[in-house]
Design a protein that fits this description.
alpha+beta, SH3 type barrels, globular
Length: 82
């Protein structure tokens, strides 16, 4: 990661009902809401926790929750036990 960008951990619900969990890389001085509401870019890239990259059209996003990395580690640990 560079000094000008930061990782934001998110859970994203899409219009087709799918749920994506992963990381968005945004400008350090930006908020997540700034990136999602920016009109000059229609797509964002989400990296999930299996190292897959998803190019997401922002018009298909229903809901985005920013989560702490600790919460994600707990969620992943629970999911892998099942």
């Amino acid at each position: 990661m560079s000094l000008t960008r930061k990782d934001v951990h998110v859970e994203m619900k899409l219009s087709d009902g799918s749920l994506l969990k992963g990381t968005l890389v945004i400008e350090r001085t930006s908020r997540l809401s700034d990136v999602l509401n920016k009109n000059d870019k229609n797509f964002i890239v989400l990296s999930d926790y299996d190292s897959n990259y998803h190019i997401v059209n922002k018009q298909h996003i229903i809901k985005v929750l920013e989560v702490e990395s600790l919460e994600l580690e707990e969620t992943i640990a629970i999911a892998t036990k099942d």
